[in-house]
Design brief:
This protein is of the alpha/beta class. The chain is elongated.
């Protein structure tokens, strides 16, 4: 029924490095700010090039401001935020020359102002045992990997963690979670591929309670937000959780892939209605020039952004900081 023991390393194990020879240590590991700035380089360079092209030895006029707004919209910041930034740049400077660095500083300040209300840490309520975190999102968003990284974080804080492999459609997802469980010393509750996900979740809640687990992380099958039958299954999983604990899940985190751009808006809207999303995790910000989508999401939905990811390494997922993000996307040092 369940499977708490480490498995013989398979393909996913080899991909994730279990049993592999450790690489030579890096001579100079980048700190988080350096990794964030590097990860957002495609977004910041796209915006920065637009700023350089528009504000070099040119007086500020309507055409320049309109072109700048277009640059910001192409970076997926969204029209409301882009309009506010353009208004801030134009205020008191119309008909005058303005340096690109000044424009970047204004951009960073406006982005930070938009993001500050949603930059909230994920708080684990110590009175809830287990504290149940349901992870949702579409295929390819990085959901299962994010669960592994969160498990590593919670374990490093001294918390007792358990994982539930609720993505029973994909054998690779089950094995991937087992690898992470082996890495961080967390038991993983599984059932064979194709099993009923709600039954597995029921078992996991029982086992987590018996074991005195601090945090139970539940994976779910990646599903497109427009597949009603799959969304109905997700609702069934949530009903099962609430039968065990009416207050659970205590957090429902939607994992979003930054590279999908505007499609993230519809994902938040539909998963929010179906699953009661309480917070966001945005991954793959290092793979896109459209990192501004996080700003558009904050403006439209106001949901807490708990973590962002800028790479594959376990420490490339960090709590979200509005000021750092604003400076990084503007290309400031």
């Amino acid at each position: 029924m369940t499977d708490d023991t480490p498995k013989k390393p398979g393909l996913m194990s080899r991909l994730f490095g279990v049993g592999a020879v450790a690489p030579a240590p890096e001579t100079a590991k980048l700190n988080w700010w350096q990794r964030l700035k590097s990860g957002l380089a495609r977004s910041s360079s796209s915006i920065g090039q637009g700023i350089t092209d528009l504000f070099t030895k040119r007086r500020l006029d309507d055409e320049t401001l309109q072109d700048f707004e277009d640059v910001l919209i192409r970076a997926d910041l969204g029209l409301p935020v882009a309009s506010r930034i353009v208004e801030a740049v134009g205020k008191g400077r119309y008909g005058k020359e303005i340096e690109g660095e000044e424009v970047k500083a204004i951009l960073a300040a406006e982005v930070t102002k938009t993001l500050t209300p949603v930059a909230k840490p994920l708080v684990i309520d110590e009175t809830k045992k287990p504290f149940v975190i349901l992870m949702v999102g579409v295929n390819g968003s990085g959901k299962t990997t994010t669960i592994g990284k969160l498990a590593a974080k919670f374990s490093s804080e001294g918390r007792k963690v358990m994982l539930a492999a609720g993505d029973t459609f994909r054998a690779a997802a089950i094995e991937q979670l087992q690898v992470w469980g082996s890495r961080v010393g967390a038991p993983v509750i599984t059932r064979p591929q194709g099993s009923d996900a709600s039954g597995l979740v029921f078992d996991a809640l029982d086992k987590a309670t018996e074991a005195g687990t601090d945090v139970l992380l539940i994976d779910t099958a990646g599903r497109l937000q427009n597949r009603t039958e799959l969304m109905a299954e997700l609702e069934k999983v949530i009903r099962v959780i609430k039968k065990k604990d009416e207050a659970a899940p205590h957090a429902t985190l939607l994992v979003l892939d930054a590279t999908v751009g505007q499609n993230a808006l519809s994902q938040v809207e539909i998963f929010g209605k179906m699953a009661g999303v309480t917070g966001l995790v945005m991954t793959k910000l290092d793979g896109t020039a459209r990192g501004g989508i996080l700003v558009a999401l904050a403006e439209k939905f106001g949901l807490p952004v708990h973590f962002i990811g800028v790479g594959e390494a376990v420490d490339d997922l960090e709590p979200f900081n509005a000021d750092e993000f604003g400076r990084a996307i503007a290309g400031l040092e």
